[in-house]
Design brief:
homodimer, alpha+beta, Arc Repressor Mutant, subunit A, Chorismate lyase, 6-stranded antiparallel β-sheet, 3-stranded antiparallel β-sheet, 7 helices, 10 strands, elongated, DNA-binding
DNA sequence: GCTAGACAATTGCATATGCAATTAGCAAGT
DNA sequence: ACTTGCTAATTGCATATGCAATTGTCTAGC
């Protein structure tokens, strides 16, 4: 990985210098200008380029590393990290991984797909404007042959144009998105609902059985990326997370 | 708030100095030796006491401030912060606050209480050893007169001895604990369950209706503090959280 | 008593400097 | 080819120093 456009690093003159540096690099990463694996220029180079002292550059990079955006190793240098797979309580989880971790075979099936303007129902369900171009997908994930979770998703074509050409033949939409987009904000909602008729039949449970509904929307730099509703058959599933409010204890 | 025992700050000689300082102070806070509001010695004092340079002390304090453990203001100095009320996705939430935020009257009722060794059922439900002394409480929270959430909780008497003398006449157990204990680790699990007979009648819903079950256990420095199961009538409730994996965008 | 202003304590930020630790890559020797 | 060891690039850590910004507190003057 060679010398990646150091000239792209630009300070905006507002606030402390170390924070300007931090934000400049963060934005390059979130914009996709520096995709994962890209070599971040070494401290000396940034120092010269920006006219700041090495300690100031260092401070910015250390903080970015703590935030998980970059990975640093002595001598090897600094590279842009892979996007985090999980965070705190709720994860942008990869359903295949999740299933395989339980030692089950994984498979999925796209039940329906429609690209273009959302139907009124879809627009309402995901709080979309009717004018926004999206791909609308319904996917059933299976674990060891059994229905695992029912996924309904919209992907914003303006934000992730590559979606239009993707068939999702081997990789389910969620995983594919992790590789083809970035997110900087997410919103989650969790609730318990009773399975409706159609959901029950797809998930092979009784109508009215409790299900865990996870709704998630993600943005990258205020642009919507995707919104998804995951319906997990109740009882069989739970979300677990462990964390502390402070640094590791 | 006067000069609080600076001699209590002790380094352990392992790892970087700035991190030793950070941990030393963090432990004093989490131990309760420096309760919220306590004045943390100024950088100069710590610098002399510890034989470190001011920048090194500074680095430790800045990091503690970012973690939310302390609050710093120029000239005024540094004080131990109040414990955080919420975090990321799921909060150590105050049920009264939550209810009032919705503009409803709040009330609660302790349905049962038993202190001492847990019964076999309780021990099993909360993964306790039979020998651990706990207070076991069942509380119903009401919102505008209507049942809001059913809470079943154990509090470890060894960790929070003040519990034994508390009647919970005006403050429900969760809120009382926030004022009388600290936590450094929490574990959450969320699942959807069908209301059982007893739960349904207490929550005034139909048996079998979907409910959101939140199970939470908290520790302070590896000592268990409390474990709680909150059963929310489905449909009426959802948890929402918004966050980014990186620093504020 | 009250106010304006000076003073000083405390944190925030940046720099310059030096050394330590790690390790990729190269060179030398077998 | 394979190993061994050296060198240098890069990050990690700590120090010393200086100035800026904020704001309690005190003092002088009214």
């Amino acid at each position: 990985m060679s010398d990646n456009g150091i000239e792209a690093v630009k300070l905006d003159g507002t606030g402390p210098v170390y924070d300007q540096i931090r934000r400049a690099i963060r934005d390059l990463v979130l914009n996709g200008a520096w995709p994962p694996g890209t070599a971040v220029p070494p401290e000396h180079a940034l120092m010269e380029r920006l006219g700041a002292s090495r300690m100031t550059v260092h401070r910015a990079l250390v903080q970015l590393a703590r935030e998980g955006l970059i990975t640093r190793r002595r001598r090897s240098g600094t590279i842009v990290a892979n996007p985090p797979a999980s965070h705190a309580m709720l994860d942008i989880l990869s359903i295949p991984d999740e299933v395989r971790q339980l030692g089950q075979d994984y498979s999925f099936e796209i039940l329906s797909r429609r690209d273009g303007r959302p139907s009124p129902e879809v627009a309402a369900g995901f709080e979309l404007k009717r004018s926004e171009q999206v791909a609308h997908l319904v996917t059933l994930h299976r674990s060891g042959g059994q229905p695992h979770v029912l996924e309904e998703r919209v992907i914003h074509l303006a934000t992730v144009p590559a979606t239009a050409a993707e068939r999702f033949g081997t990789t389910p939409p969620g995983d594919w998105l992790l590789q083809h987009s970035l997110w900087s904000q997410a919103e989650h909602a969790i609730s318990a609902v009773a399975a409706g008729e159609r959901e029950a039949s797809l998930l092979e449970i009784e109508q009215g059985e409790p299900c865990l509904l996870v709704e998630r929307r993600t943005w990258n730099q205020n642009q919507p990326v995707t919104a998804v509703r995951l319906l997990y058959p109740g009882g069989r599933h739970r979300f677990v997370g462990r964390f502390g409010p402070y640094g590791a204890v």
